[in-house]
Amino acid sequence: MTEEKNSIAKALLRAQQEIVGVDKESRNQFQQYDYTSCEVMLRACRAVLHKNGLMVRRGDCDLHQTGNDYHAHMKFILMHPESGEVFDDLVVWPVIQAKGKPLDKAFAATLSTSLNYWLRDLLQIPRGLDEEVDQRDDSRYDPNRKKTISSAGHYMLALSEATTIEQCYEIGEQIRNARILDAERKELRKAYTARLRQLGGEK
Fold first, then answer.
1. Segment 75-89, tens digit of pLDDT
2. Which end of the chain is more exposed for a tag (fewer CB within 10 A), N or C?
3. Where are the domains of the chain?
C-alpha cells in the first residue's frame, strides 16, 4: 500500500485541530482589558506549527506613505519542508504614530502586532467574543462625537506608552488643554496620576 503523501494543507489542518486557544496573560491597566502578548502568541503557535512540520517566516517588508498615513506592506511565508510546498500571504497593516511613539517605534509595533494577528488567522485561534468588533456594545455610539472620543482614546494610549516622567508631564498638559468632555478628562486625569506614580513621580 502506497503511503499517503503529506501536504502543507494537511499539516496546517492538524495544527489548527490541535491548538485550542492562547491565554490572555497581559493586561492594559489604563484601558482595563486583557490581551495576549505577541511573545506568548508566537511561542504557542511556533510549538504547534513545528510539531506538524511547518515553518513560518516574514519575507519582504516595505513602508509606504500616502499623504500623512503610513502602511507596512509585508509578506508572511508558511513552509512545509517535507513536501516542499510554500504558501505566501501579502499583508498590509497601518503604522500609527502617537505621542511618544515616533515612526520607527510605530513601525516596530506594527511588525509585532501584524505577526500576532496573522498567526491567529492562520491557525484560526479564538480570542473571545469580548474582543470582537461585531460583538462590541455600540448602543451609545454617536457619530457626531467621533472626533472627541478618538482624541480621548489617543491620550489614554499615549499615557499607557509613556516611559519617562517628562513624557507624562507633557501628556498631562495636553489633557488639560484638550477639547474633550469633562467626564473623559476626569478619567484621563486618573490614568495620568496612576502612570505618573508608576514612573516614580508624584506620590
1. 999 999 999 999 999
2. N
3. 143-203
